[in-house]
Amino acid sequence: MSTSAAGQPLIPQPPATVAALRQAVSRIAPAALPAFARELDQAADQSREGSDLAPLQRFVAQWGVYVHIQRQPHLAAELRHWEDTAESGHATQARQAASEIGRILDEAHQALGLLTR
Question: What is the pTM of this model?
Answer without folding.
Answer: 0.88
